[in-house]
Amino acid sequence: MSKMDALSLSYEDWVREMEALGEKRFRADQVCGWFYRRHVFEFQLMSDLSLELRNRLDGAFRVGLPKMLGMRASGRDGTKKFLFDFDGSSVESVAIWHPGRITACVSTQVGCPLGCPFCATGQSGFERNMTVGEMVGQFLAMEARLGEIKNLVFMGMGEPMLNYHNLIGAIRNLNHPKMRGLGIRHITVSTSGIIPGILNLAREGLGVRLAVSLHAPNDELRDQLVPINAQYPLKELKRALMEYQEITGDRITIEYSLFDQVNDSVPMARQLGEYLKGLSAFVNLIPGSCVGDQRFRPSPPFRVRAFGDLLTAMGYPVAMRQSKGSDVGGACGQLRRQVSPGIQEASPQGGQRGGEQAPKAPGPAGDSKPDRGPNKGGRRQASASKGEGGKASGGDSGGSRRGGHKKPAAGGRSAPEGNRPRGEGPGKRDRSGPGPAGRPRGPRGNGPRGKRPGGAGRNKGR
Ligand code: SF4
């Protein structure tokens, strides 16, 4: 009989499994605490369980933590790109650095079936959907190595809404107070515009943030840049986004990658502004990333500025961002499952220092020293990375990361400042995160949310 993947199980599943083994339900809390708070992934190391129970768990479950094949660290902004192996399927994940916090960008599919021409993932074809445990595993593997991760964006490889059921399972596991307890407002789902997924997410009542990768203001151009537009054209997408806001009352982040002379003219900015009328939207503008196709070169700064200024003049909150991790192929649209084995850190000039071998799987908390980012010795940056953030009017939301259809929010590809608990500065500890080893801490105010009363009334229609 094949073993069940422990990280794919929900908290309720764990309670049922423990009761089926004749154990009390608090054993479920203990096991989840070891996985999600202490980053211990071997049952034999769970010292508060009896030897008999540890052996039985070993016999029934496998812990599908990915094997790290390689990691590249940007010398420019501290972003780290990981190549993970899941039983022969390789996938990239990215940890994006900001002063005082890390955002994990997690993949939802091995490859992507949507084939956007400017996206390396889209050009690599589609292999399969990822399981709940594989998505959770990316997050936990990065956190075990790097230390506490405060934000999560589903905008790595693949279209999350095409793997909806597993996406929701992963969100629930990482948000559940007995599991990781990541604040629900610290989680962003980014889509290229899959309408059924957008509406399902609204009705789910979770309270996650939504980002939509638009990249073009009219169907003619969007059909070329985001081919799924032929199935879900802009007019229908707008109707779905209006309904999403009616239900959730949440602002939506619009991701727009700017490619030189392709989608970055001032008339197109005006067209985008017209399209967004009536929606409460925050617009993230980011120069597209180089993926080797000469048709898609990043827009120069003056064109980005002109595009953004027009939208600002039309009354939209806009952030003009720098792409993070481009020197290690970890920027938007660059994920292609090609990190070389071992660990490499880019020099500030963009070269690579390599040769270090991938580390062993993390042991009990405290066994390994978290790699804290661009500053050596575990010290975090005291100030924002150069070039990060750019000009921003307003401050939002959803996150813009991948040059594909997805990007996190604020700070280029980071989750937005708005994701931080109100009144908390970047250096303060996020109380919703994991507590010290051995003393798991429950999250605050991170539970799933229902429909907000009068949600639609929060929209700032234009
Ligand atoms: S941009 Fe997103 S939807 Fe398009 S091919 Fe890349 S991963 Fe898929």
Automatic annotation (TrEMBL):
<feature type="binding site">
    <location>
        <position position="190"/>
    </location>
    <ligand>
        <name>S-adenosyl-L-methionine</name>
    </ligand>
</feature>
<dbReference type="GO" id="GO:0002935">
    <property type="term" value="F:tRNA (adenine(37)-C2)-methyltransferase activity"/>
</dbReference>
<feature type="binding site">
    <location>
        <position position="112"/>
    </location>
    <ligand>
        <name>[4Fe-4S] cluster</name>
    </ligand>
</feature>
<dbReference type="GO" id="GO:0046872">
    <property type="term" value="F:metal ion binding"/>
</dbReference>
<dbReference type="InterPro" id="IPR040072">
    <property type="entry name" value="Methyltransferase_A"/>
</dbReference>
<comment type="similarity">
    <text>Belongs to the radical SAM superfamily. RlmN family.</text>
</comment>
<keyword id="KW-0698">rRNA processing</keyword>
<keyword id="KW-0963">Cytoplasm</keyword>
<dbReference type="GO" id="GO:0051539">
    <property type="term" value="F:4 iron, 4 sulfur cluster binding"/>
</dbReference>
<dbReference type="InterPro" id="IPR007197">
    <property type="entry name" value="rSAM"/>
</dbReference>
<feature type="active site" description="Proton acceptor">
    <location>
        <position position="92"/>
    </location>
</feature>
<keyword id="KW-0004">4Fe-4S</keyword>
<feature type="domain" description="Radical SAM core">
    <location>
        <begin position="98"/>
        <end position="327"/>
    </location>
</feature>
<dbReference type="Pfam" id="PF21016">
    <property type="entry name" value="RlmN_N"/>
</dbReference>
<keyword id="KW-0408">Iron</keyword>
<feature type="binding site">
    <location>
        <begin position="213"/>
        <end position="215"/>
    </location>
    <ligand>
        <name>S-adenosyl-L-methionine</name>
    </ligand>
</feature>
<dbReference type="InterPro" id="IPR013785">
    <property type="entry name" value="Aldolase_TIM"/>
</dbReference>
<dbReference type="InterPro" id="IPR027492">
    <property type="entry name" value="RNA_MTrfase_RlmN"/>
</dbReference>
<feature type="compositionally biased region" description="Basic and acidic residues">
    <location>
        <begin position="419"/>
        <end position="432"/>
    </location>
</feature>
<comment type="function">
    <text>Specifically methylates position 2 of adenine 2503 in 23S rRNA and position 2 of adenine 37 in tRNAs.</text>
</comment>
<dbReference type="GO" id="GO:0005737">
    <property type="term" value="C:cytoplasm"/>
</dbReference>
<keyword id="KW-0949">S-adenosyl-L-methionine</keyword>
<feature type="binding site">
    <location>
        <position position="119"/>
    </location>
    <ligand>
        <name>[4Fe-4S] cluster</name>
    </ligand>
</feature>
<dbReference type="GO" id="GO:0070475">
    <property type="term" value="P:rRNA base methylation"/>
</dbReference>
<dbReference type="InterPro" id="IPR058240">
    <property type="entry name" value="rSAM_sf"/>
</dbReference>
<feature type="compositionally biased region" description="Gly residues">
    <location>
        <begin position="444"/>
        <end position="462"/>
    </location>
</feature>
<feature type="compositionally biased region" description="Gly residues">
    <location>
        <begin position="390"/>
        <end position="401"/>
    </location>
</feature>
<keyword id="KW-0489">Methyltransferase</keyword>
<dbReference type="Pfam" id="PF04055">
    <property type="entry name" value="Radical_SAM"/>
</dbReference>
<dbReference type="GO" id="GO:0030488">
    <property type="term" value="P:tRNA methylation"/>
</dbReference>
<feature type="binding site">
    <location>
        <begin position="158"/>
        <end position="159"/>
    </location>
    <ligand>
        <name>S-adenosyl-L-methionine</name>
    </ligand>
</feature>
<dbReference type="InterPro" id="IPR004383">
    <property type="entry name" value="rRNA_lsu_MTrfase_RlmN/Cfr"/>
</dbReference>
<dbReference type="InterPro" id="IPR048641">
    <property type="entry name" value="RlmN_N"/>
</dbReference>
<dbReference type="GO" id="GO:0019843">
    <property type="term" value="F:rRNA binding"/>
</dbReference>
<protein>
    <recommendedName>
        <fullName>Probable dual-specificity RNA methyltransferase RlmN</fullName>
        <ecNumber>2.1.1.192</ecNumber>
    </recommendedName>
</protein>
<dbReference type="GO" id="GO:0000049">
    <property type="term" value="F:tRNA binding"/>
</dbReference>
<keyword id="KW-0411">Iron-sulfur</keyword>
<keyword id="KW-0479">Metal-binding</keyword>
<keyword id="KW-1015">Disulfide bond</keyword>
<feature type="region of interest" description="Disordered">
    <location>
        <begin position="341"/>
        <end position="462"/>
    </location>
</feature>
<feature type="binding site">
    <location>
        <position position="116"/>
    </location>
    <ligand>
        <name>[4Fe-4S] cluster</name>
    </ligand>
</feature>
<keyword id="KW-0819">tRNA processing</keyword>
